[in-house]
Design brief:
By secondary structure, the chain is mainly alpha-helical. It contains two helices and no strands. Helix 1 runs antiparallel to helix 2. The radius of gyration is 31 Å and the shape is elongated.
Length: 113
């Protein structure tokens, strides 16, 4: 980046130098934002792994709860009806949660809920 001597340089050389300086500045900005993004990804990586593990454990617990409910209810109404009742209740809860999530997303997007 040798700056041209203003007395000796013509307008073309000055514009050329300005263009090169602008390109260098843009490259430096891109490199800076890449470094910031990489730092943020590194910070979030551990939290994302913990969130996935927590979700997997919660799913395993929910499966255990459903199986336990079926086994407990099977002594009262039989295994077929117990399965139907527990799965029906689980699907009803899933539908209500899905409806609430869709309503919240529509509200956040500005549509009428």
């Amino acid at each position: 980046m040798d700056a041209p001597n203003l007395e000796e340089a013509g307008i073309g050389a000055l514009i050329g130098q300005l263009t090169e300086d602008a390109k260098d500045y843009a490259r430096a900005e891109v490199d800076y934002f890449k470094a910031v993004a990489q730092a943020k990804v590194s910070e979030v990586k551990g939290a994302a792994i913990a969130a996935v593990l927590a979700l997997a454990l919660a799913l395993a617990a929910a499966i255990g709860l459903i199986v336990g409910a079926i086994l407990t209810l099977a002594t009262l109404v039989g295994p077929g009806w117990a399965t139907l009742i527990v799965v029906g209740v689980a699907l009803l809860i899933a539908a209500l949660l899905g409806w609430a999530a869709a309503r919240g997303i529509r509200k956040a997007m500005g549509a009428k809920a």
